[in-house]
Structure formats: structure tokens, C-alpha cells
Amino acid sequence: MTNMYNRSLLEEILRIDNLERAQKQVIRNKGAAGVDGLTIEKLPQHMRENRQEIRLQIRERTYQPSPVKRVEIPKPNGGKRLLGIPTVTDRVIQQAVTQVLTPLFNQQFHDHSYGFRPGKNAEMAIRKALEFMNDGYEWIVDIDLERFFDTVNHDRLMNLISRTVKDGDVISLIRKFLVSGVQLDEGYKETIVGTPQGGNLSPLLSNIMLNELDQELESRGLRFVRYADDCIIMVKSEMAANRVMRSVSKYIEKTLGLIVNTAKSQVTKPNNPDFKFLGFGFLQDYYTDNYLAKPHEKSIESFKYKLKQLTKRNWSVDTKYQVERINQLIRGWVNYFKIGYMKKVLESIDAHTRVRLRMCIWTKWKTPKNRRKNLIKLGMNKANAYKNSHTSKGVTRIAYSWVLTTTITNKRLAQFGLISGAQYYSKVHV
């Protein structure tokens, strides 16, 4: 940000090196094309050919962002999350804006805000929550904001931004993104309120909006942890928790103009099975009574479902590629939940994954001749290989039986590259 104040913020955003960095980030993030159909693969050439024109249009305030493409993502609980997919060009510009504005706003944000901030992450949020719980603040005020990204008031948000950003060109550009509209199957729809979840600028805008809540909670002397629109407040008694629930909900609705989902908001304790924060649940240590983190049951079920999708018998891909995808999922999941306690869960999931992979391999062998050849190759004598290659047993029974557990052994699967979630967890658990 050298010499930022010698030039306008807009010029910082439009600097070639900033735009190139933004373009690289958009490519790394991958993602689908927007309403114009332009893909990530074609983005570099498009920017080379059009970058100067785009910069000129933004400077002259004639640039018009395209409507975002509305997609519905199924949620684990059966509901749907609405995402807005901007065009890849708009994603580059939003990312360029974010890169310049983040350092300006980041210094204003509260220490206990952990979402989408440099040097902060979900693990740090969970650690801070555990610290408060184990200091005796074990009553949780869990306030759910209903459709946060769809209900943000544009005027209030722009007012908050303009307290820090004094460049009118940048203010104008941000507002254009807010009101660019949504393209639905049935046609175009204006966006009078809300900031589409899915844009590169949305996380920063949500933090700017909810920083007002953070400062209010701080002024009341409350212990809290926030990650984007997920926020929990921790107090010492049920009476205090109910009082905070009422007063903070009123502040959120009356002052911030957001909507509290009363059906999902709750006063609870950490070890309530229904309580989930950032995918984690909590339990109490038998010896110390201290609270510990663990993956929530819903997170475990979601993980199992994803593994099941990767071990479908009718997925006709090379086993090596299949194992790579399974490993990728296991590593990502364990890395996210590594501060939680879950070794026994992972051992059970490992065993089930190995069975399902054996089922896939048996199915891919297809013919009795090929099965016999592979069983012999894996050490079975010819008579048993012949008999079992012609078996009438179903694939599930075979996968659990000695036929495959003594040939496609755990050791062989490990040598082939399949990682054990439990063993990987033992290495990374902190």
C-alpha cells in the first residue's frame, strides 16, 4: 500500500499489479461462469484484451456489473442456501476492491471476529470460545441471523463504508455491485436489499456491517466469538443469557435492521447435542469437567455422505484417482477439525471406507476371469481363487469376507496410497 494517500483509492484498485493479483486469486478460487458464460479458463485472455477498457469505464463511472446468477445449494438439513455467482470479470474487480479495502477496515475490526480476515480462522474462534466456556461462561446465547446476506440494508451499509472510504468513485462502484440484480430462471430481479452470498466482496461487507454488533457487545462487557454471521455470546447464568438474548436481538433488529430467526436462536449450554458452532459440538472432560471441542454429529454425517459419494460402485474412474479424491477429502476434513476429539470416530469411518473401496475394486474387476487373475496376483491359491471368482455372494458380503480382507488388506490399501483418517489425525492433532 505504498504511497496510497498520494493517489486515490480507486487508482490503487485499478493498478495493474493489483488487478493481476486479483485475477490470480479468482483463478485459484475456481468456480462456475456467471450470466455471460465466460469461464475461468478464458479469463486471462479476456482480461488481456479488455483490461484497459474496463479500467477506463470504472474511472468514468460507466462500468455496469452484470446481474449475479442465482443458484441453490442443498444444505445438510434439507434446506437450500442461495448463492449468487458474479461473472468472472466482476469477481476480478470485486477481488481488487477487497485487496485494497481489507487493510483499511481490518484494523477497525474486533479481535474476536475471526471470519474472512487475514491471519484468523475457525480454529482460533473455537479456541477462544473454549477459553470463555472454561472460565465459567458456560451459558450460550446462540443468535441466528435469518438470511443475513439477503437482508442487509444498502443505505446503512454504505453509510458505514463511507466513514472510512472517502473516495466517491469507490463508493459508487461498491453500490453498483450491491444493486446489480439477480438473474433467475424466470428473469431479472432487482436487489433493493442484501449482498449476494458468493461474491468476492461479500465477506468484507458482512464484516463491516457486523462490526457494529461486535462493538456493541464489547461496550456491554460481553464475551463473544463471531465468524462472519455466526455469533455466540457466553455468560455465567441462564438468567443473564435470557436477558442478553432479548436485548441483543432487539438491538440487531431495531438498530442494525437485520432479522433474528427466533426458531433457530437458543439459550443453551455447550454440551447440548443440538448446539453447533462452525461445525463443532462440545463435550465435558470426565476428569476435569473442562469443555472440549469435537466434530458435531451433523458434520460427521456430512463427511460420511461425501465419502459415500466417492466410493460409489458405479463411479467408473481409475482407482488411483478415486483414492486421491478420498485422501483429499479426509485431509481437508481432519485439518479443519484437528483441535477436536474424534479418534474413535475416525477409526470407525476408516474401516467403513476400506470396505466400500474393496466393493468398488471388486466391481471394477467385473468378470470371473479377471477376478481370479487378481486374487491369485494378491496371494490366493488357484483353487480358492477359482471358487471365489465365481461366487454368487453379493458384493457387500464379499467385501466384508476373508476373500477380500486377506487379499486387498489394509496394508495393501495403504501401500496403494489410501490414508487413514485416524493416523493422519494423530499427526496433526494439537
Textual characterization of the structure:
The protein has 430 residues and is of the alpha+beta class. It is built from 19 helices and 10 strands. The strands form 3 sheets. It has a 4-stranded mixed sheet, with no helix packed on it. The protein has a 4-stranded antiparallel sheet with strand order 6-7-3-8, with helices on both faces. The chain has a two-stranded antiparallel ribbon with strand order 9-10. The radius of gyration is 26 Å and the shape is globular. The chain starts with 8 loop residues before the first helix and ends with a helix. The relative contact order is 0.09. Mean pLDDT is 92; it is low at 1-6.
Which secondary structure elements does this structure contain, and how are they paired or packed?
Blueprint: H1 9-13, H2 16-29, H3 43-59, E1 68-74, E2 80-85, H4 88-106, H5 122-133, E3 139-143, H6 148-151, H7 154-162, H8 168-178, E4 182-184, E5 187-189, H9 202-219, E6 223-227, E7 230-235, H10 238-254, E8 266-268, E9 280-284, E10 291-295, H11 297-310, H12 319-337, H13 343-365, H14 368-377, H15 382-389, H16 395-400, H17 402-405, H18 410-416, H19 421-428
Parallel strand pairs: 1-4
Antiparallel strand pairs: 1-2, 3-7, 3-8, 4-5, 6-7, 9-10
